[in-house]
């Protein structure tokens, strides 16, 4: 169980960091938020992978396609996060 949690955190950190490198611009996030971004991106990528390819994690969680899906999901989540964050930060005078 502890190995699974550590694995999820490590994959989340890698996927979140790669997503932040792919998306241009400054994202003011801490390391903890980068890990959360990667974990949420893993769920989004896994869900999209299941919808498109009808495959699940029955063959193991740490597969190259799972890592790629995690990065793709993290990029999608980060794009949505930056668009929603920019909309909320503008003020009307």
Automatic annotation (TrEMBL):
Keyword Transmembrane helix among record annotations: yes
InterPro entries reported in the protein's UniProt record: Transgly_assoc (IPR007341)
Protein keywords: Cell membrane, Membrane, Transmembrane, Transmembrane helix
Transmembrane segments: 6-23, 30-53, 65-84
Subcellular location(s) of the protein: Cell membrane
Cell membrane in keyword set: yes
GO cellular component assignments: plasma membrane
Pfam family, one: Transgly_assoc
Membrane topology: Multi-pass membrane protein
PANTHER family reported in the protein's UniProt record: UPF0410 PROTEIN YMGE
Record family assignment: Belongs to the UPF0410 family.
Identification of the protein by name: Transglycosylase
Organism name: Mycolicibacterium madagascariense
Upper classification of the organism: Bacteria, Bacillati, Actinomycetota, Actinomycetes, Mycobacteriales
